[in-house]
Amino acid sequence: MPRTRCYRGGVLTDQDFPIDEVSEHLAEESAVVWVDLCAPDLDDLQRVADELGLHELAVEDAAQGRQRPKYDRYAGHDFLSAYSVQLDVDSGRLVTAEISAFVTKTALITVRRDESFSIDALVKRWDDEADLTKFGVGALLHGLLDFLVDGHFDAVESLDDQIEQLEDLLFDDRPHDHTVQRRSFELRKSLVQLRRVVLPMREVVNTLMRRDTGLVPDQLMPYYQDVYDHVLRATEWTESLRDLVNTILETNLTIQGNRLNIITKKVTSWAAIIAVPTAITGFYGQNLPYPGFAHHSGFVTSSVLILVLSGALYVTFKRKDWL
Q1: Any signal peptide, and if so, which residues (predicted)?
Q2: For 62-77, how does the pLDDT look when each residue is reduced to its tens digit (9 = 90+)?
Q3: Which tens digit of pLDDT belongs to each residue from 84-134?
Q4: How would DSSP label each residue in 89-117?
Q5: What average pLDDT score do residues 3-8 get?
Q6: Is the distance from CB of 125 to CB of 143 less than 8 angstroms?
Q7: Contact predicate 52/4, CB 8 Å
Q8: CA distances (Å), 206 to each of 78, 145, 197, 210, in order?
């Protein structure tokens, strides 16, 4: 069922009325209407388009979905496309929910692809900022953008926490190479996806703040400026995290190389020590007479040589930190 609301003079006066009555509510002075459509078919969108005179290209974009975040201007109305995001901490996957909006001077029509976008949280944001609704559609649009950008900021913060955990695993005493590599790849992919969502929002908010749109009165300009500041911070944070993930991957490869060098050094040192008794016993195992052949002194001599030379190699390698 579509959700509808009507504000008059900034006060909520009616809600959950049929879409066919939108024009009647808009005919009243100082009325602002909000309509929400969840997974609508083309007929439902066409009804709203006929009711408000929406452009066919904007209706097509809302019906097809998968648009890049943008703010397009048409004669008589504007069209917004944006995404809410949420990080799945267990898998490291970024869950996105697309929302489109038709914006007129007196109406805001939101179109969602499915229930993954929390419309109840958005309505609560509007109710918490009820003192701003007197400024019309600009206030509702500000609440929507502020809600989306706060979600972007929360996702970036969660990604930052996950990357800090990766850094702890990186220098743990026990190797976690597979976990670090897999988790780094998942977070890097989520950061690339988040960048595609966050970066275009600068242009969206900047377009709305221009005077020629006529949607943002001077009283709301500081609020939009605050949203724009959050967009910039989220964008810069996302870029820095991408660089940090790349650094973690490079550092992990460096640590693996250093660990391999240490292992190779230790194996080589033990092989050199083991080669001593092998060489001595091989020499004394010759089938010909030699000093101490078939006598107890020969066994003592070989044993002493093995112990002394092996011990000398062990002490030498230990001093050189090869063992």
Answers
A1: none
A2: 888 888 999 999 988 8
A3: 999 888 888 899 999 999 999 889 999 998 888 889 999 999 999 888 988
A4: TTTTEEEEEEEEEEE-SSEEEEEESSTTS
A5: 91
A6: yes
A7: no
A8: 14, 12, 15, 7
Q: What are phi and psi of 103, to 5 degrees?
A: -120, 120
What tokens appear for 207 in the block? 């377009």
Strand partners, 80: 71, 101
Residue 25 has pLDDT above 80, yes or no: yes
130 strand-pairing partners: none
Structural domain boundaries, residue 55: 3-256
State how far the Cα of 90 lies from the Cα of 162, in Å rounded to an integer: 10
pLDDT value for 291: 66
296 and 196, same structural domain? no
CATH code: domain of residue 114:
3.30.460.20
203 and 266 share a domain?
A: no
- Round the CA-based radius of gyration of the chain to a whole number and report it: 35
pLDDT tens string 184-196: 888 889 999 999 9
Tell me which DSSP letter residue 37 carries: E
The dihedral built from the CA positions of residue 260, 265, 268 and 270, taken in this order, carries a sign that is: negative
